[in-house]
Amino acid sequence: MRQPQSFARRNAPRPGLIMAPGRVRFVLWSLGALFFLLIVRALYLQTVQQDFLQNQGEARFRRTLVLEANRGVITDRNGQPLAISTPVQSIWASPEDMPPVPPDKLAALARLLEMPVGDVAAKLADKKREFVFLKRQISPELAAEVMALGIPGVARQQEFRRYYPAGEVMAHVVGFTGVDGRGQEGLELAREKMLAGKNGSRVVLKDRRGHIIEDLAAIERPRDGQTLTLSIDQRIQYLAFRELRNAVELNKARAGGVVVLDGKTGEVLALANYPSYNPNNRSALEPEMRRNRAVVDLFEPGSTMKPFPVSMAIEAGKVRPDTWMDTKPYMIGPATVRDSHPKPAMTVTEVIQKSSNVGSSKMALMFAPEQMWTFYDQLGFGRSTRSGFPGEASGRLRNWQGWRPIEQATMSFGYGVSVSLIQLARAYTIFTNDGGLLPVSFTRLASPLPARPVLKPDTARKMREMMMSVTQEGGTAVRAQVLGYHVAGKTGTSRKLEGGRYAANKHIGLFVGFAPATAPRLIVAVMIDEPRGGSYYGGTVAGPAFSAITAGSLRILGVKPDAPSNNTLIPLDQIPEIREDA
After folding, report:
1. Do 262 and 211 share a structural domain?
2. What is the distance between the alpha carbons of residues 318 and 314, in angstroms, rounded to a whole number?
3. Domain CATH code at residue 205
4. Where is the Penicillin-binding protein transpeptidase domain positioned along the sequence (predicted)?
5. Among the options 303, 412, 418, 494, which is catalytic?
6. Bridge-partner residues for 475, per DSSP?
7. Which tens digit of pLDDT belongs to each residue from 375-424?
8. Is residue 582 very low, low, confident or very high in pLDDT (cuts 50, 70, 90)?
9. Is 76 buried (19+), middle (13-18) or exposed (0-12) by CB count in 10 A?
10. Are residues 285 and 388 in the same domain?
11. 553 catalytic per annotation
12. Which residues constitute the domain of residue 298?
């Protein structure tokens, strides 16, 4: 029986669906092999390559964030802040993780950061960089505006910027930090380890948009820096800076410096230089402004050295305050030693009062060079005060074996030896501390440090009495008087060396003194560099500044007057100018 034709067509084999058995097996084996290779590859990546792949993933999305420690506060001796850290924001980006930034957002970002568009684009174009700062230390408000742009890969982090409330007044003492928060000048540099503290860290996982997904390790908390309490009294510092600036400007000087020491402890109550600078805005800072002249500059101190050979002679019993000396000019080899206002004879007290080169040099020559060198060495000349201040100068005191008689003579009135202002002020502590040389300290002391004995207390007392005559009528520093207090000290006027010769028209005017003279509390040293206002003598250019600084400082400290409160001072315009050549 024949089947219907339609049924036969429907059940006939279709050519497209017929496959040979061998081909079927080949396809099945191929698929099985590929599947097996995928399994092997997965096992290989999960075992052998696990660490490598994990590191690569973390390198792209794992970040270690620095948790910045808050830098320690610097205060004066009364707790007034001199350097504090204020929170700011820094904007950074991760170029390798960032998609292209639309031109309009790039322009908006550059505008907010006050940067050229090209500079911002260049920083973001380097895809090899994982991290780049776009702008550091901006206000939190501005940082919020930047983040509101919503640019993937752009983030912010908190930092701290140093602020100095006293500005230029304290600049040379406190110094400043760089944009990275590290000390670069002054005590910010000297006490970096103490102030910096230790930064913490936070290890996080971020997505491509810079958002933190999770913490990958325990957070290491930052350890803030310690508070540094200085010996400086900010009130005295303001006073010293103001009067020094007035003296420099009045005398049309190149520069000036002042040091105020506690005569019983050696603490630095004030140290100022002029010109100065504002550490909060250093955009126009010049190298000359940064120089802490009172610590790093060296000069020949002139007649401010005369009390030392005189005290040496009194200590040795060779002279007394009332001993008469021949002060006529005399020869040492081809050189002549003479005074600006010669007298045939003077007492030892008058040698100090009138600033006699002849008298001081004759007392110096009573000793062998080695003896005089040893005494100067005991006073700290030729080596730093070890105050810890960065860049402190050591001064220059040549070995005694090379001294000639004329050199020993001139060193008695301040030529042939170089000192810094802080060295000179420190040396005067032997007169205020009953013969003991005090160490210098820029930090507040709980109790005075041990002094090194140099003179007998009786010698120091006699020197104080003689040095009082310098500020009394007939002395070289009547302008240094202080109403209500006895003042003792010594003037100095030295020529500056230029090209190996002493310049005829470049001088340094000095006055170093202490008060109250009968019970010393303060030592004030004033240096005026190259005064060009008509006079250059120490008593004229430095004496008035000393008087104003000392008077104000004694009132601030509440020091009881040691002279009649109703005494009067000679008006400045009635005080004759007494010349001195050293």
Report:
1. no
2. 6
3. 3.90.1310.10
4. 256-550
5. 303
6. none
7. 999 999 999 998 888 889 999 999 999 899 999 999 999 999 999 999 99
8. low
9. buried
10. yes
11. no
12. 234-574
Q: What is the pLDDT of residues 54-90, one digit of tens each?
A: 555 555 566 676 667 788 999 999 999 999 988 887 8
- The DSSP line for 218-259 is --B--BPPPPEEBS--HHHHHHHHHHHHHHHHHTT-SEEEEE
Answer with the one of 195, 229, 263 that is the final residue of a domain.
229
Tell whether 264 is covered by a domain. Answer: yes
pLDDT bucket at 192, cuts 50 / 70 / 90: very high
Placement of tokens 């490598």 in the chain: 52
| Contact call for residues 140 and 90 (beta carbons, < 8 A) | no
Q: What token pair was written down for 187? A: 């005590």
- Rounded Cα gap, residues 236 and 254, in angstroms: 23
Q: Does one domain contain both 238 and 212?
A: no
Where does residue 229 fall: left (phi above 0), alpha (psi -120 to 50 degrees), or beta otherwise?
beta
> How high is the mean pLDDT of the chain?
87
> What confidence tens digit (pLDDT) does each residue in 245-304 have?
999 999 999 999 999 999 999 999 999 999 999 998 887 778 888 889 999 999 999 999
Q: Report the C-alpha gap between 95 and 193 in whole angstroms.
A: 34
Q: Which residue has the tokens 């190259």?
A: 530
**Confidence tier at 10 by pLDDT (50, 70, 90):** low
Q: Please report the pLDDT score of residue 213 as a whole number.
A: 62
Nearest CA to 248 among 256, 258, 260, 236?
256
Residue position matching structure tokens 């950061």: 113
pTM: 0.81
CATH number, domain containing residue 247: 3.40.710.10
C-alpha–C-alpha distance, residues 182 and 195, integer Å? 9
- Who's near 396: CB < 8 A, 6+ residues apart? 298, 382, 417, 418
Q: Which of 200, 229, 258 is the last residue of a domain?
A: 229
b/e 507-520 (16+ beta carbons within 10 angstroms → b): bbbbbbbbbbbeeb
Angle (deg, nearest 10), helices 307-315 and 457-468: 140
196 and 243 housed in the same domain:
no
Tokens of 68: 């910045």
Which pLDDT does position 20 carry in this prediction?
Answer: 74
Tokens 């240096």, residue located: 527
Q: Which amino acid does the sequence have at 513?
A: G
In a domain, 48, yes or no: no
Q: Span 166-191, mean pLDDT?
A: 91
Angle in degrees, 0-180, between the axes of helices 357-364 and 307-315, rounded to the nearest 10: 40
Which amino acid is present at 4? P
- The single residue listed with the structure tokens 């079927």 is 24
The number of folded domains in the chain is 2
Q: Examine the domain organization and report whether 437 and 479 are in the same domain.
A: yes
Q: Confirm whether 471 is domain-assigned.
A: yes
Asked, for residue 300, whether it belongs to a domain, the answer is yes
Residues 299 and 446 grouped into a single domain = yes
CA torsion angle for 471, 474, 476, 477 (degrees, to 10)? 30
Please state the separation of Cα 242 from the chain's center in Å.
20
Looking at the fold, whether 152 and 78 belong to one and the same domain comes out as: yes
pLDDT score recorded for residue 464: 97
Q: Catalogue the E-assigned strands of 182-254.
A: 200-206, 212-215, 228-229
**217 pLDDT higher than 60:** yes
Shared domain check, 158 and 266 = no
